[in-house]
Amino acid sequence: MAEIVQESIRIRDTELYCLKETSGSKGDVLLLHGAKFSAATWRELGTLEVLADAGYRVYALDMPGYGNSPPSPVPAGAVLQEVLQQRSPEGAVIVGPSLGGRYSLDLYFAYPQGVRGLILVGTVGVDAYRQRFGKINVPCLLVWGSEDTVSPPDNACFLEKEIPDAELVMLEGARHPCYLDRPAEWHERLLAFLRARFA
Is 23 a catalytic site residue? Predict the structure, then answer.
């Protein structure tokens, strides 16, 4: 049974709240969150436990100004880069839903050596990197809700076409936070991707 614990990660003058379970041996997975959610969302949904039980070392962060992490003057991308340098020096698979997906892309293009894979879920900010997706050279899983009105499914189809190693999963009938609408299928597809590419 996974034992999820709380931790405070210090980045310069910033304290980040983190939930983690790091007893596994299959590599690191870093869970980010959308603008209306926090690390606690992943505990409530069961994603932390699912990943830990599958043998992955998993971290769920509250980004600065969200959840239990206070605001910080340090840019979000720099915060994430230093978290990886501290906790995952060999790199991590980054799970980024919505705004967390934008953070994931910012991180990848600034610090690609720290990112082993990307799982983008209803990512916003696609237009900001429209000309650069062809340069992503890590495995990428795209998970979208077919009824997403915040980041429309057209964005998912564009990313699937542009990213060289991308797999698209469309969750039928699901809204923008598609993992909340279809948690069982979300966990099934997440684990299948990790086992196939990062066993």
Answer: no
Question: Pick the catalytic residue: 38, 72, 88, 98?
Answer: 98
The tens digit of pLDDT for each residue in 55-107 reads: 999 999 999 999 999 999 888 889 999 999 999 999 999 999 999 999 999 99
Q: Which one is catalytic: 28, 62, 106, 148?
A: 148
**Burial group, residue 68, by CB count within 10 angstroms (0-12, 13-18, 19+):** middle
For the chain, percent of residues with pLDDT exceeding 90: 92
The reply to whether 98 belongs to the active site is yes
Structure tokens at 42: 């992943």
33 in active site: no
Q: What is the pTM of this model?
A: 0.96
